[in-house]
Design brief:
The chain has helices at residues 41-51, 82-97, 104-112, 122-131, 151-161, 223-242, 275-290, 296-309, 315-318, 320-328, 336-345, 348-360, 450-453, 461-466, 501-528, 540-566, and strands at residues 3-7, 10-14, 21-27, 74-80, 167-171, 204-208, 213-220, 247-256, 261-270, 363-367, 377-378, 390-394, 397-404, 408-413, 416-421, 425-430, 436-440, 445-448, 472-474. It is of the alpha+beta class. Strand 12 (390-394) and strand 13 form a beta hairpin. It starts with a strand and ends with a helix.
Length: 569
């Protein structure tokens, strides 16, 4: 049984469980509340609060509770004796009241190399394409704002988001531990962020190059959707792993997103030689469920499993985290009896309806070309329109043109068109050498390289003044090796034209006399030389005239030969 209490204005949920006490202080703030320019600020606040407690205590950075903030929640969790739990959570709240920023720069460097800043997983990559560079799409991005956050920014984030009105505490105990102090700044509860969209139409697909297949879809939160996800996972495992061996892993997860929506993430991984067949079989599984062919044994198996979970010992304590999350989202609480009734009411027809809804909102990531003809529209890989302004052809590629206008920047080239409008820009990283890296709300990115386009800082003024100041981030100097050094394209050599037959004849007609005269002069010089192999003075003028004649006869031949080798006639 779960009971409710309040400590220092923070709602507290209690359910007794034998053994050590576990408590979780949950705040309704996460990655989806940030912007790309401030991404990482929630995780930084969390670690600054924990850093003061040191690595040795329960729940500190050294005990394994290093979980990064999720899209909508941030958690401080601790396990220990009641006194240890009270001391730890009291220390967390004290740090949040007056955030210690003495080690801000050190923590920033540590977090830049921590696991939460690695490349996004398969669900994160799909989130980028579905939501763009805002709201829930931020879970697919690196924390680009982390290195540039100031002490005032993180203090303000703690004052406004880590408040008593935006928190819930759950404890696996029948009573609040003595000495617990949850004093926090006062503030209102923040609703979950509204979802953004970067796709013109659904269902859609986009290419992935790692050989895996991922399908995501957003459904209304319901028991039927949860059970369908389990049936979907069983079908994928059977079709892709057991029956064909295409995949060595196949799963499906149901993940609540906010009070009314949940994300279904289905994923399969296999060997490269099986990727096309795996993608086809993946789509076929969903087509089977959409046609209403649900295996009755699968439905009964997942129903029995869901009902069994409601009969496990310690159910009340196990339900505490979910109950706390629902409370923060203002989602109505359901009793165990209500959940049982909902599970029992799910039929094959109900799952058929969920399958159709899942398909309508689906986004498939599959190896390039493997999902063509599946009925999924190709997600756009470029912008539909550009801006009108001054054009700057690339010095290293005249086919690529940068356009800087009063309302945005466009980049057109062989790979397509990318346009980022200033009013729809999530991030501008400004480098001292003049380079600008822009990320649009739709997730499309482009980079302005002054050395590549021959553009000056003054000509970038429309960009720097046009974007919102909150998205402009000053970057440190780049190493010279990262700055492009371009040269104009080298001229293409013109191949020599083959000589015509008549040209060859003319060459020999003009050149042969010169060769004959030259040889004659050489022989004559030998014959006319005296006994010391020197030419007699009387014959010097004669030899000089012959040499002039030989040289003159070779001139036309040399000119013709030069014309031939240069490729001109």
């Amino acid at each position: 049984m779960i009971t409710e209490s309040t400590v220092d204005g923070v709602p507290v949920l209690l359910a007794h469980q034998p053994g050590p006490v576990t408590a979780g202080l949950l705040f309704r703030v996460g990655r989806a509340d940030e912007t790309l320019a401030t991404s990482g600020i929630t995780r930084l606040v969390r670690h600054l609060a924990l850093d003061r407690l040191g690595p040795g205590g329960p729940g500190g950075p050294g005990d394994g509770d290093g979980s990064a903030p999720a899209a909508t929640f941030t958690r401080f969790q601790v396990t220990g004796t009641p006194a240890e739990v009270a001391a730890h959570l009291s220390g967390v709240c004290a740090a949040l009241r007056e955030l210690p920023v003495e080690r801000l720069e050190t923590l920033k460097e540590i977090l830049r190399t921590a696991p939460a800043d690695r490349s996004p997983d398969h669900a994160g990559r799909s989130a980028q394409w579905r939501y763009g560079s805002r709201s829930y799409g931020l879970t697919g991005y690196a924390e680009a704002g982390l290195p540039h956050l100031t002490a005032e920014q993180v203090r303000d984030w703690a004052r406004t988001r880590f408040t008593s009105g935006n928190a819930v505490l759950w404890i696996t105990a029948g009573a609040v531990p003595e000495g617990l102090d949850l004093t926090l700044p006062s503030g209102d509860r923040y609703p979950a962020p509204g979802a953004t969209s970067a796709l013109p139409a659904l269902p859609a697909r986009f290419p992935g190059e790692d050989g895996s297949v991922t399908l995501t879809s957003v459904l209304p939160r319901s028991t039927a959707a949860s059970l369908f996800t389990e049936v979907f996972g069983r079908e994928l495992l059977r079709a892709l792993h057991r029956d064909t061996g295409y995949a060595y892993a196949a799963t499906a997860q149901y993940l609540p997103r906010d009070a009314v929506s949940a994300t279904v993430v289905a994923h399969a991984e296999g060997l490269p030689e099986h990727q096309d067949a795996m993608a086809g079989a993946f789509v076929d599984v969903l087509a089977k469920l959409r046609s209403g062919r649900v295996d009755p044994s699968d439905l009964e198996a997942v129903r029995a499993s869901a009902l069994a979970r409601l009969d496990t010992p310690g159910l009340a304590a196990a339900r505490l985290p979910g109950r706390a999350a629902d409370l923060l989202l203002d989602r109505p609480h359901r009793t165990v009896a209500e959940e049982r009734a909902e599970i029992g009411a799910v039929t094959a027809g109900t799952l058929h309806e969920v399958a159709h809804a899942l398909w309508e909102g689906s986004l498939l990531r599959a190896p390039r070309g493997s999902a063509d003809g599946s009925g999924l529209a190709a997600a756009p890989t470029g912008s539909a329109e550009t801006v009108s302004g001054r054009a700057y052809p690339a010095l290293d590629d005249p086919g690529t043109v940068l356009t800087v206008a009063a309302e945005g920047v466009g980049l057109a080239g062989p790979a397509g068109l990318i346009t980022v409008r200033y009013a729809e820009c999530s991030l501008v990283q400004a480098y001292p050498d003049g380079a600008r890296h822009l990320v649009g709300h739709d997730g499309f990115t482009l980079t302005v390289e002054p050395t590549r386009f021959g553009i000056t800082a003054a000509e970038l003024t429309p960009l720097d003044t046009g974007v919102p100041p909150s998205v402009l981030v000053a970057m440190p100097p780049r190493s010279p090796a990262r700055i492009p050094r371009t040269t104009p394209p080298a001229p293409v050599p013109v191949p020599a034209a083959p000589a015509a037959p008549w040209f060859t004849v003319l060459l020999w007609v003009l050149g042969l006399p010169g060769i004959i005269i030259g040889v004659s002069v050489l022989l004559l010089g030998i014959v006319m030389g005296d006994e010391h192999s020197r030419i007699a003075p009387d014959n010097a003028w004669f030899l000089f005239k012959w040499l002039l004649a030989a040289g003159a006869s070779l001139i036309p031949w040399a000119v013709c030969l030069r014309l031939r080798t240069s490729g001109r006639k």
